[in-house]
Amino acid sequence: MPRAGALRLVPVAALCWAAAGAATLAPAVAPWIALALWAIVALAAVAVLTLSVRAGSRPRSARGPGLLRMPHNALRRALVVTVLAAAASAAAASHVAWTQPERASIADLALDGGRAVDVRAQVVGKVERRADGTLAFDARASRFATGTETHAADVEITVRVAIDDVDRLGQLDVGAAVDARGTAAPGRPAGRSVIVLWASRGVDVVHAPEGPTAVAAGLRHGLLRAVAGLPGVGAGLVPGLAVGDTSIVSPALDAAMKAASLSHLTAVSGANCALVVGMAFALAAACGASRGLRVASGLAVLVGFVVLVTPEPSVIRAAAMAAIAMLAVLLGRAGVGIALLSTAATVLLVIDPWLAASLGFALSAAATAALLLCARPLAAGLARAVPRPLALAVAVPLAAQLACGPLLILIEPTVPVYGVLANLLAGPAAPVATVLGLAACLAAPLPWLQSGLAALAWVPASWIAATATTTAGLPGDALPWLEGWPGAAALAILGLAIGLVIARGRGGSRAQRLARAGSVCLVAVVTGAALGAGALSSIAGRWTLPRDWAVLACDVGQGDAVLLRSAGAVALIDTGPDPEPLAACLSRAGIERIDLLVLTHYDLDHIGGLAAVRGRVGTVLHGPGDAEGRAQITALTAQGARATEASAGLTGSLGAARWRVLWPKPGSRAFPEGNDASVVVDVRGGGIPPTLALGDLSASPQRVLTASGALAPPYAIVKVAHHGSGDQDAALYVAAQPAVALVTVGTDNDYDHPREETLAILDAVGARIARTDQDGAIALWSSEGAVAIWRERGG
Length: 795
Description:
Layout: H1 10-25, H2 30-57, H3 66-107, E1 115-123, E2 128-129, E3 135-146, E4 149-161, E5 166-167, E6 177-186, E7 195-198, E8 203-207, H4 212-227, H5 237-243, H6 251-259, H7 270-286, H8 291-308, H9 313-331, H10 334-351, H11 359-373, H12 375-382, H13 388-408, E9 414-416, H14 419-426, H15 429-442, H16 447-472, E10 478-480, H17 484-503, H18 510-536, E11 551-553, E12 562-566, E13 569-573, H19 579-589, E14 594-599, H20 604-607, E15 617-622, H21 627-638, E16 642-645, E17 651-654, E18 657-663, E19 680-685, E20 688-693, H22 699-708, E21 717-719, H23 730-736, E22 740-743, H24 756-764, E23 768-771, H25 772-775, E24 778-783, E25 786-791
Helix pairs in contact: 1-3, 1-10, 2-3, 3-10, 4-15, 5-15, 6-16, 7-8, 7-9, 9-10, 9-11, 10-11, 11-13, 12-13, 13-14, 13-17, 14-16, 15-16, 17-18, 22-23
């Protein structure tokens, strides 16, 4: 364990973090926070000077022995720490206060959540494809135009745009200058992005990346081309392992990597940066370079690596953490590492206070601190039961998982059971794949060499992919846990108890023995409860669902997955964004086969979970799609499904129920593929209350559907279109007369779904509203002439 002196900077970082979080959450009061903290700095500094002067003015003979001077010195040290903590906190709050006027003026443009704006900006973050098929990226805006008014600016924004609305898509990359036109909404509280711009009127690339960013983009794209022809899903991991580019990782593999706690391998982390710097340092040392030159070469390579993998905030943060970890390893002193970690975190928070609300920043800090402080005691404890090399190998991922688990609960309230095992198996392959993939990336000028290196990197990448898919497929791979901050706190306490059980021996003082015994009891009780909850969500889960359910909305996050059941036959409308939550829902409901699969359209939040049902589908009813959509249908038919393209007027049966397609119109060119061509079905009879599922239909086709006379109201259940977005036609819901409005939506989603105006429409027609973000899974059935509703959270 580090000496107490090495931990003195920890409260400095902690208080700076708290002040930065408070200032960014309440930017209007940031100036007052800063003023109060600067006053504390002044008072504490005066106190330190006073103590120093008094101590220096007394004769040495009057100062007493060292034991008598200890309280005085301890007070002075505490005051110095107070000065540092208050100064850093005040600097972070001052940064927020300084930028707030400009940020507020830009945010005012989006107060109504729908004002049209034109923005000139430079892309500063990766261009990523989201679950709904749209693109999202962070950009630094330099000019805003609203109507005839133009405003100069220097703020960060987030841009979201449909792929088809991007001009010169191939040149959209980090460093590119763009013009984005659409509607703006305020960014998240404490978020770095001032506004979120929905570029509904398109994004034009004014000029492609230039200079180093252009070279880096060319190298990344070259690596993507080099692995394109390699077999298996593991090929898509090579760019992710090497340069953090996950654009060609399949949704199924991405879900498996997350379920197996391996997703950190495809994100640029401190480990990647440390590996690159370590290689540069070792090469310089082998060439006989002096210590100064070795450090300089390591820093130069680190800067180049940051540019290559895109210098977005998360990457810069990872580079800083890697530098700290490397220095701690070189010095061989964990205590020094903690002091440096605290210093770096403090400096980063002063430079960028909005990191205080970044979960990625918290994960980086927690993982680094755990490796510095906890890996060695855990290894020593494990070595009492297993060989020391194995204990060391297990201790690293175990320390990281114990530290990061409580934070990850805030994203997904499940605990990965096999995460440590998966990391133990995949860990040795990760650096090999990273080094070979990076070498392949840099070998772009020599295509023959690049292809060979990419093929070599494919081998360890495929091992990692196989580890992820195998681990994620094991029974009970994830145990349910409490949600939100209570769940994070509970898992943190459990993690501390596990650490005490492993690190502490059977001996020690009475207090230590009691602490260990209490930890053993806590771990045993929680493990039993978690295993029981896991059984209820899988094997025994069907006992917790109402026996007579006819419609079951699965809680799959921001996406659609609705089951319908009649006379033993089962239909599934869409599959959600990921296979794992859908597979859990099917297991809980005891569903082995899908007689009818309806794919309303091909956005990832509707088809991302297909891997959970492949080989188990009888008939797939699908809407019109592009080449990628047709490939999905072909994959289903290759595994035994019969495919039928849906169009208005098509009918069929599901057990004793009947279904009827109301949309899209056959041969219509008025509404393109995607949301507006979503398959809309009417299902009723055979125990299923009259149900209308609207897919992601927007207001315009909703009006046409209402006018067509195809609706057959009143409907007992209406699955609200597009997760409750604001793009709705109130007249459709008036005409449908729903008794229950079912909103399939993810908790704390980035789209503010369901929108208040949509909820107002549903309230106005007298519908009872059921939401998966608040209620979890939702079961509905007919009971005494009405619709009965069972909510997972609330009954």
